Amino acid sequence: RTYVGTMSRGGSVLLALFFTSFAMHFSHKRSQLLMTKVREMFYFGYNNYMTHAFPLDELNPHKCNGRGPDYENPENININDVLGNFSLGLVDSLDTLAIMGDREYFKSAINHVIKSVSFDQECTVQVFESTIRVLGSLLSAHLIITEWTDVFNITMKEYDNELLSLAHDLGVRLLPAFENSDDMPIPRVNLRHGKSDLHSDSTCTAGVGTLILEFKMLGRLIGDPVFEIVAERAMDKLWNLKDSKTGLIGNVYNTKTGSWEDPMSGIGAGIDSYFEYLLKSFILFGNEKDLARFSKYYSSIARYMKRFSIDDENLSFYDNPYYFANVHMKTGKLHNHWIDSLSAAFIGVQILHGDLEAAILHHAFFYGLWLKYDALPERYNWYHKKCEYALYPLRPEFAEATYLLYRATRHPFYLFVGEKIYDSIQMFNKAKCGYATLNSVLSKKQEDRMESFFLSETCKYLYLLFDQDNPLNKRSDFIFTTEGHLMRINRFVREKMTFFDKFDEPNTFKNISHLFSCEAFPRHRQMIPPFSDEFWSNLISFIDLKV
Questions:
Q1: How many whole angstroms separate alpha carbon 396 and alpha carbon 392?
Q2: What is the pLDDT of residues 298-355, one digit of tens each?
């Protein structure tokens, strides 16, 4: 069905072409073909990593060789925060192999991890990155083998909990980060010696608030509450550091001085996954304290950060594109004029919270940027309508949001968006031996690096978007961690409770049923584009999208 209304602003040609294309039926055959193409994209990256880079951490897709920690320059945190000489590219990809149904590939990868991976390394790594990329993946793969055979039909008779043992070992090596008097972990530890001379006292909010899922799950699987205790204490500390007036939290905190170094508050880099993990912690573990805290933040975000492209109170919410601006945590006033690509992850949070209409319109803003650049720049200045930092390292957040919105709405529009994401990556990021970071979304010049999240998340979400018969797409008892690893909502997880789950808040936090809604997306809305033509015209004008 074609839906084209009156177009009052520039870009009507683009809008008409877009809607005409959209009105075409996205067939199951077309979806299956794209699923196959995404699978080939993943294996082009994965097989080249295994051939040219393993057992090192990352693939250099131009030189066709591997990359590990920068031992010559220990202060090169862009590399050393992530790479710990623990075969990151392999470890981070484990559950992607299972999701794609490749049992033999998955089993082979598990055996490679068991034989090759050790955390007894002279490396200083970031606690946050090691937790979400490595610890989370090991736990997910362990549970795929031992607990989730009804979903993935993967069994390994010879498996003896080696991945869980590796996860426990890594967890223990990360614990020295919490040896502070104020319960806030330092951002980096040496895997062999604990605290490092290179450690910094400055830590971002996400680095503190994005450990709770992995640490809590590890503790419950091995029966050791210490991991849950330290992660919960850190979450409590963060909650107490929010501003009493605005309810907002800052970006960078100094654990030594006990003060905020960067008071910027936003939904993007440095804070993003903290909000995500409060909500997902409630979903996974059932702790109402986390939901109550999340809901307070959500209200503050809407009050102080939401900005509309057109300052007109008479213009309908559904016709006025919006974004979330960065503000000062103490005043709520505008702090700068840029948004970053990581803030696209908040769309998934909006969906989980039941704020579906807002998520649809928020997603459209990033889709407009993708059409403008065939990627998402790390930073976009909405005031000057141009890139502020043009790097695109194949981040997954927009693909994730597109997949989750399709799951929530079944609207074929998001299949078209996913096809566009795939086409852009295939055209501009493919390299000799894999897929490369774009040094600039403007020039499309490539950089010789393929980060592990391309295989663990970007390919995974695109594959699930098009594989509509995937077992995961027929269930609602799984959530993804912020690195795209699987955790299952079940009685086992919730019954293994610690004293933290008996937390008691004032009565104002007791009645939480009103805090979010999950109304079904109306069936008739699936027959037309998910936003109005006036909204789209206003959006392309606001971001200066050229026809």
A1: 10
A2: 999 999 999 999 988 888 888 999 999 999 999 999 999 999 999 999 999 999 999 9
What per-residue confidence (pLDDT) applies to 499? 42
- Give yes or no for residue 6 having a pLDDT over 50: no
- Decide if 537 contacts 8 (C-beta within 8 A): yes
DSSP string across 70-116: -TT-TT-HHHHTT--SS-HHHHTTHHHHHHTT-HHHHHHHHHHHHHH
Alpha-carbon dihedral angle through residues 335, 299, 483, 34, given to the nearest 10 degrees: -100
List the catalytic residue out of 228, 397, 419, 534.
397
Backbone angles phi, psi at 387, to 5 degrees: -65, 140
Residue 472 φ/ψ, nearest 5 degrees = -65, -30
- 313 HSE (CA, 13 A, CB side): 0
Does 129 participate in catalysis according to the annotation? yes
Task: Please give the Cα distance from 204 to 202 (Å, whole number).
Answer: 7
Flag whether pLDDT at 160 surpasses 80.
yes
CA distance 523 to 123: 53
Residue 491, pLDDT > 80, answer no
Catalytic residue among 57, 129, 374, 483: 129
459-489 pLDDT tens trace: 999 999 999 999 999 999 999 999 999 999 9
Distance from C-alpha of 9 to C-alpha of 301, rounded to nearest angstrom: 30
Number of Cβ within 10 Å of residue 474's Cβ equals 9
The helix (H) or strand (E) run that includes residue 215 is: helix 212-222
Residue 486, SS3 per DSSP: strand
pLDDT of residue 12: 46
H or E element, residue 488: strand 486-488
Task: Give 26's pLDDT tier (boundaries 50, 70, 90).
Answer: confident
Half-sphere exposure in the Cβ direction for 197 (13 Å, CA)? 2
Catalytic residue, chosen from 57, 58, 272, 340, is: 272
Taking the CA atoms of 131, 132, 134 and 139 in sequence, report the sign of the dihedral they define.
positive
Q: Which of 276, 378, 400, 419 is catalytic?
A: 378
Q: Which residues pair with 194 in a beta bridge?
A: 190
In 10 A of CB 534, how many CB atoms?
19
Instruction: Quickly state the pLDDT bin for 13 (edges 50, 70, 90).
Output: very low
What token pair was written down for 225? 């509450």
Contact predicate 382/545, CB 8 Å? no
Q: List pLDDT tens digits, range 359-412.
A: 999 999 999 999 999 999 999 999 999 999 999 999 999 999 999 999 999 999
Is residue 183 flagged as an active site residue?
no
Residue 521 confidence (pLDDT): 55
Backbone angles phi, psi at 259, to 5 degrees: -140, 165
CA 388/CA 407 separation, integer angstroms: 32
Partners of 124 in beta bridges? 190
Which residue type occupies 167? A
Place of tokens 């040094």: 439
Site of tokens 């039941």: 354
Per-residue tokens: 91: 């470890």
What's the pTM?
0.92
